[in-house]
Design a protein that fits this description.
The structure holds three protein chains of three kinds. By secondary structure, chain A is mainly α. Chain A has 16 helices and no strands. The chains are: A mainly alpha, B mainly alpha, C alpha+beta.
Chain lengths: 481, 407, 181
């Protein structure tokens, strides 16, 4: 990795509690920041490396669609799923991608409500990633249903058989949860982007650009009467997205936890899945962002401080995931149910022990390196650990799904699941789709939420410069009313 | 709209930042209320003629109620350091004082620890014999190991509370910003210790009342209630101190707004956890798990369950939603009391069906013990606060905290 | 009074380089009693709402209605489809049981609230708008990048042509220019 990444010259991770953290370095002002971020999009002709990357990723994506075509032609017999392991790669990949899609909304909504100003540099990127991850996630259950052409039966639409979906099934809850999540994430992302699209429109030098960006900018003119409602809407969307993000992975966990399968049915699943989702999502944000800030020269906007803070969140959520693993083990023993106890011993020492120990070493052990500031502030080390976390979180879903199904109550019905080449190629292809979308996003849309970053730039700290009070106030004491 | 210039730390010079003479009064009154409350509770317990079983359960209930508040503070203080939180700098000292009540809580654990057999099934050898599940768990659930664990939890809690409070008080004297940096580094390990001890305390003290039942989520469930009620206590403490002319300039409506946001969020979080736990058990419908809920749905207990859904979630959720409420101190105080009452009811619903599955056993001694422990708790708060400052006067983030705004 | 002194004039546009100058100036425009005027900034400027005297928006109430509609709709839909129109028993669950209905109800409540927020906000802002006179100004292109503007419309009852121009110039604007309608 050291070959790809250069050393950061500016280290803003030193912290003085008496002063606000310096979030944007390199002496940017409103003008140069706008030039920098828009310049990436406005540049004539993309760099050769971008074309190479796009070509590679797009061909991976094409391979996935080829595999899907073959699947529709032949049926899911070409996959490794068998009896008893009826849920294989498709579910594992679905949960993996949905989990990754949690970081964007966490950054844009929860960190917004918690007034974490550092989020402004990374939220656009993370939100975009969220949407692309949800796109990848949505594909897998869609193609797993077997008869893909009737997948619309999942929705409560009137049909000729006069029948309705079963709302008591957690799989249907998933349809609503993921559908709502995709919609709300898209609205949130787009709402945040409108002022920046207007910037691109106003800077446009060609007619095509002015019309294209102008169309999506909706005639935005920075009016403060508009900003007022816009900010309220943003706050409300953040307030709605916060419980939504909790609910989505909780509902995904219900797919497993409402059943009676040992290792699946446990009450900690909802918060544990949510913590794991945030964990994996942040790792993926880092995996994409560290190279992107390098290649596009954004190190003064996405600074070392941002990376360090994300590393801390990864450490915190990784520890929560470890807590959930430990609780599950303890209660499996404490509950005294032999089937449950067996499920956990089987996870750690059974035929899939290799997957289990990959999971533990990647998810619980590797983030512990983030206790050291040296690692937290080294982009190369961060990238390596985050890739390990991504691998670990995929294996977590594999362990949960496959070990429990392959050996449940009846030893006579045990089996072993082995993915086929088609399983693996489809999964690899989904990365192609994901990164194709990321590359297109980086080329055509503003990667940094300019309007938001400008609110936290040093120049903005005008309070100290105003000699007399303006309309806003600084804290009212209750007695003043 | 009132208009204020940017406020300097110097505004606190004109503020009353100590309890002063009131501390002694509170200690005296609190102690008196405590002795009368606990004494009459004890007499009522003796008069009940059930071998003190109701008394002991009511003791456990009220003790856990106050313990929740102290544990909330113990969670809050390291978290504020870890996240380098600005808004809370002016109120963090109050939380440090609340966490200083943990030694009292350790003392009040004695009646529970000395009478385990009357409270916990697994501590009664006659009931363990022949019960395969209880025999299986005897390695974990036995009076000796259990007592050892409780002692260990309290040792950890008191140690953590003391470390953070001492450091903060030291900063009052020296003003050294390095103390803040050090507390930030301690925050992470402290929260890990807190998480583990609080979870196992929940398993031991509450979940093992029905020693057959288990739920991996249970530690999180108690935690959700702890945090909601902790912010309620902070609201009441702050409002009370401001009413008595203290911290008048220090605490602004912005801080109340944040208390309100936290209560709102954790009322919802509690509902999320409670629903997830219930729904998963309801859906899977396995008898070894449903028994616990079944006991709480029969013989009048279902009314308490419905009351929790309505009053621990829906009503305060709707009530605290608006910014209007969060910026009115009286309304905030109302909702704070409401949430505390409901946390008590929640604990009642967790504990009492194990004593009396046949009906809701409300007795006068429940109230006597609540009032008595409340008196002792208030006295301890005043004792811990003592003559010292109620605001971390030289915290490097104080200036920012005085001026922060909710956009 | 709302006569136009100059036909074809939309109003005057004043440009400011620094955000705090804009806030000071906005407070003066507010105090002068203008009603048809606006500030334009590249990012939401805190303190400007107060300086302009903007009152709270109705949007939260709309969202509340949207959310309640989603809630009701979701419960009714699940009951009607699974317990009424096409009842079928599965895994011993009641035809309509609240615990199993909560997830979908929650999701639809959030979905309708979010859609109301999104569309409600744009509708209240009267956006999207195909064209606006301010876009005639070359200078105004920087309103979305790095400059801060006040616009006073000619339709404002207090609008006085040159008088308004001088008023704006006196607020410390870096430049004041007329904008064609």
């Amino acid at each position: 990795m050291g070959i790809l990444l250069t050393r950061d010259t500016i280290d803003n991770t030193a912290h003085d509690p008496a002063r606000p953290q310096e979030l944007i370095t390199g002496g940017y002002d409103f003008t140069t920041l706008t030039d920098k971020v828009c310049g990436i999009v406005e540049r004539r002709g993309a760099p050769r490396a971008w074309w190479v990357a796009l070509g590679f990723m797009a061909s991976l994506a094409a391979m996935m669609f080829g595999m899907i075509g073959y699947l529709i032609y032949k049926g899911i017999g070409i996959w490794g799923v068998n009896n008893p392991v009826g849920w294989g790669f498709a579910i594992v990949n679905f949960v993996f991608w949905v989990g990754i899609g949690h970081a964007g909304t966490l950054i844009s909504a929860i960190l917004y409500l918690l007034r974490q100003q550092w989020r402004t540099s990374i939220n656009r990127f993370a939100e975009a990633m969220t949407i692309f991850a949800v796109v990848c996630a949505g594909i897998f259950p869609g193609i797993h249903v077997g008869r893909v052409w009737v997948v619309w039966w999942l929705f409560p639409l009137p049909n000729f058989q006069a029948m309705w979906p079963n709302f008591r099934s957690p799989l249907l809850w998933d349809v609503f949860a993921v559908g709502t999540y995709a919609t709300v994430s898209l609205l949130f992302w787009y709402t945040g982007m409108v002022p920046d699209l207007a910037t691109l429109r106003d800077r446009a030098t060609t007619k095509v650009r002015r019309i294209a960006y102008g169309f999506f900018a909706l005639g935005w003119r920075g009016s403060n009467r508009h900003w007022h409602r816009y900010e309220k809407a943003y706050l409300i969307l953040a307030g709605l997205a916060t419980p939504l993000v909790l609910s989505v992975h909780s509902v995904v966990s219900f797919d497993f936890a409402t059943s009676q399968i040992p290792g699946w049915h446990t009450t900690i699943f909802p918060p544990y899945f949510v913590a794991g989702a945030i964990f994996s999502g942040f790792a993926m944000v880092m995996t994409c962002l560290i190279p992107a800030r390098e290649w596009y020269g954004l190190k003064n906007i996405v600074t070392l401080y941002h990376l360090e803070t994300m590393a801390k969140i990864i450490l915190a959520t990784g520890t929560m995931v470890g807590y959930a693993y430990a609780t599950e083990f303890f209660i499996a023993w404490y509950g005294g149910n032999p089937a449950e106890q067996f499920a956990f011993v089987n996870r750690a020492f059974g035929p899939y022990a290799w997957a289990y120990w990959i999971m533990v070493s990647c998810n619980v052990v590797s983030p512990q390196l983030f206790w050291f500031k040296k690692i937290r502030t080294s982009p190369a080390a961060l990238l390596v650990v985050c890739i390990f976390v991504n691998i670990g979180m995929w294996f977590e879903r594999f362990v949960i799904t496959v070990t429990s199904l392959s050996r449940d109550f009846l030893p006579a019905a045990w089996g072993y699941y082995r993915p086929t080449a088609i399983d693996i190629l489809t999964f690899v292809g989904s990365f192609g789709l994901f990164f194709t979308l990321v590359l297109l996003f980086m080329r055509f849309l503003p990667m940094i939420a300019m309007a938001e970053v400008k609110t936290v730039m040093p120049q903005k700290h005008w309070e100290d410069k105003v000699s007399r009070p303006v309309g806003d106030y600084h804290g009212t004491n209750p007695g003043d009313r | 709209m009132s208009q204020h210039a940017r406020r300097d730390v110097a505004v606190l010079d004109g503020d009353n930042l100590v309890l002063g003479g009131a501390a002694r009064r509170i200690v005296a009154i609190g102690l008196a209320v405590g002795v009368v409350g606990l004494g009459s509770g004890f007499l009522l317990g003796r008069a009940a003629g059930d071998g003190m079983r109701h008394f002991l359960h009511a003791w456990l209930l009220n003790w856990l109620f106050f313990l929740s508040l102290s544990l909330g503070a113990l969670w809050f203080v390291p978290l504020q350091h870890l996240t380098r939180s600005t808004w809370s700098a002016v109120v963090r000292r109050l939380a440090e004082i609340v966490s200083g009540t943990l030694p009292l809580m350790a003392l009040l654990a004695l009646p529970v620890l000395l009478n385990l057999g009357d409270i916990y099934v697994w501590a009664d050898p006659t009931r363990v014999a022949g019960d395969p599940l209880l025999e299986h768990k005897a390695g974990w659930l036995n009076p000796g190991f259990f007592t050892l664990r409780i002692v260990f939890y309290f040792a950890v809690w008191i140690l953590l509370a003391t470390i953070f409070r001492r450091r903060s008080l030291r900063q009052d004297a020296t003003g050294d910003p390095a103390i803040t940096a050090g507390s930030e580094r301690l925050g992470g390990p402290a929260l890990i210790l807190y998480g583990l001890t609080q979870t196992f305390a929940a398993f031991d003290l509450l979940m093992s009342l029905d020693a057959h039942w288990f739920s991996t989520m249970f530690g999180v469930y108690w935690f959700a209630g702890i945090v909601a009620s902790f912010f309620a206590v902070m609201t009441l403490l702050t409002a009370g101190l401001q009413r008595s002319g203290r911290l008048v300039h220090a605490v602004t409506l912005e801080h109340y707004n944040d208390y309100g946001r936290a209560m709102f969020a954790f009322v919802f979080f509690w509902a999320y956890i409670a629903f997830s736990q219930y729904m998963l058990i309801w859906y899977a419908n396995i008898p070894e798990e449903t028994g616990w809920y079944l006991r709480r749905q029969q013989n009048g207990w279902s009314a308490v369950g419905y009351a929790l859904i309505l009053c621990h979630w829906l009503i305060p959720f709707a009530g605290l939603m608006s910014r209007f409420t969060k910026r009115r101190v009286r309304l905030m105080a109302f909702w704070a009391v409401w949430i505390l009452v409901m946390h008590w009811v929640d604990l009642f619903w967790l504990i009492m069906p194990e004593l009396s599955p046949g009906g809701i056993p409300l007795r006068l001694m429940d109230a006597a013990l609540l009032v008595g422990m409340g008196g002792l708790y208030a006295a301890t708060l005043a004792l811990v606060a003592g003559p010292r400052l109620l605001v971390a006067r030289r915290d490097p983030r104080l200036q920012a905290s005085l001026n922060f705004e909710n956009y | 009074m709302a006569t136009r002194e100059t036909p074809g004039l939309y109003g005057y546009l004043a440009e400011f380089r620094e955000p705090w100058d804009l806030i000071d100036a906005a407070a003066k425009v507010r105090d002068a009693g203008y009603t048809r005027w606006d500030c334009h900034t590249p990012f939401p400027l805190h303190g400007l709402d107060g300086a302009m005297g903007i009152r709270g928006t109705r949007l939260p109430w709309l969202v509340l209605c949207g959310g309640l509609a989603g809630l009701t709709l979701a419960l009714l839909m699940q009951w009607w489809m699974n317990a009424h129109d096409y009842p079928f028993l599965i895994s011993g669950k009641p035809l309509f049981g609240l615990p199993a209905a909560v997830p979908v109800t929650f999701e639809l409540t959030v979905l309708l609230s979010a859609l109301t927020t999104f569309f409600g906000m744009w509708a209240l802002n009267l956006l999207p708008q195909h064209h606006h006179p301010l876009f005639n100004s070359e200078r105004f292109r920087r309103a979305t990048s790095d400059r801060f503007f006040i616009s006073i419309e000619a339709r404002d009852p207090l609008f006085r042509g040159e008088g308004t121009r001088e008023f704006l110039a006196g607020l410390g604007a870096d430049a004041v220019e007329p904008v064609e309608d």
